[in-house]
Amino acid sequence: MTARKGGEGDVFARIGAFLSEQGLSPEPSHYSFAYSIVTEPDGVIAQAVRRLTDGGFRLQRGDIESLGGKVSLGASAAAEAGQPRQPDISHADALEENAARLVAETQAQVADFTTMMQAMQNETRGFGRDLAESAAAITAPQVGHAVGLEAIARITGTMLARVRDAEARLASATREAEALRAKLDEANDTARRDALTGLPNRRAFEESFVTRPEHDGPYCLAVADIDRFKRINDIHGHPVGDRVLCAVGRLLVEECAGQLVVRHGGEEFAILLRGMTLAQAADHLDSVRAMMAAKRFRIRESDQPLGSVTMSIGVTAVQFGEDSAAAFDRADRLLYTAKAEGRDRVCAA
């Protein structure tokens, strides 16, 4: 039987299309998440999904979980079809695997230190026992002076050998610990950095927001989004889109020097501005927006003009004691106001 538009068949088809587009397998948890989006297209979750996927990006695991969904550990539809997984998802999985490996290495290192320290404690007890026995033997009336010196030399030689062995093991363990610390620092930085642009990522933003010294304020939070980015990807391809993302990221970093600029997801950037009032932040960001709009991009391979690339920006003052979710939501709504009013503008409140 042919399904009516808007009927159950249409819902099933749209759910299937959503799962396929996002590279999700038809697990019950994935189906439930897709159902809530398809059946409530104007709902909060559906609107958030449209924003996160605008520009041809797939949802990341963290995106789905932050919206109340659950990601199955099974293979995705894309993986089952023999297609490469989306870079963001595979990068996240790689970070998790790297973190798990480093945890295992750390646990092994701790175990080695524990074993070494126990051995040194046992050896120390052995030193004391040998010294006590030798002292008793040396002071005994029947033991001659030569015998006493021989015992002292034997005990001293044994102790020196054990100390040298312990020093060598400590030096080796210290080198291993330093190498492990360097790996942990590298992994820690990688987990907080966007693989494409090299900018800090959403995780770094959340941590920086929580740990910001409030007395260094005032603070303002801006959310910037590249206008019509999906069109760039559709017409010129994702490699060109990636270069545009990197160029926008560089401009924001250069023109917002000393402030935290992160790639928050897709074509969206977040900027935490310190030491500016809302009016100052809005003026500054408007000058950055105008600078971006004045640039004329060209396709590297063909020298074909790409035209102007514009940004819409929402900026708000961070209230004392406010959490990142509340401030970001307010800035995000201002961003949508800027989009609705014609794009290529800054909205502040």
Q: What would your notes on this structure say?
A:
The chain is an alpha+beta fold. It has twelve helices and seven strands. The chain has helices at residues 8-21, 28-39, 44-53, 61-66, 77-80, 87-139, 145-190, 202-211, 229-236, 238-255, 278-294, 324-340; strands at 219-226, 260-265, 268-274, 297-298, 305-307, 311-317, 346-348. Helix 12 links the parallel strand 6 (311-317) and strand 7. The longest helix has 53 residues, at 87-139. It is elongated, with a radius of gyration of 31 Å.
Write the layout of secondary structure elements.
Elements: H1 8-21, H2 28-39, H3 44-53, H4 61-66, H5 77-80, H6 87-139, H7 145-190, H8 202-211, E1 219-226, H9 229-236, H10 238-255, E2 260-265, E3 268-274, H11 278-294, E4 297-298, E5 305-307, E6 311-317, H12 324-340, E7 346-348
Parallel strand pairs: 6-7
Antiparallel strand pairs: 1-3, 1-6, 2-3, 4-5
- Estimated radius of gyration: 31 Å
Adjacency order of strands in the biggest sheet:
2-3-1-6-7
| Helix/sheet category | alpha+beta
Number of distinct helices: 12
Amino-to-carboxy terminus distance? 53 Å
Q: What is the tally of beta strands? A: 7
The secondary-structure element order is: HHHHHHHHEHHEEHEEEHE
Share in helix: 55-70%
Main sheet, how many strands, which sense, barrel?
Answer: 5 strands, mixed
Instruction: Indicate the overall shape.
Output: elongated
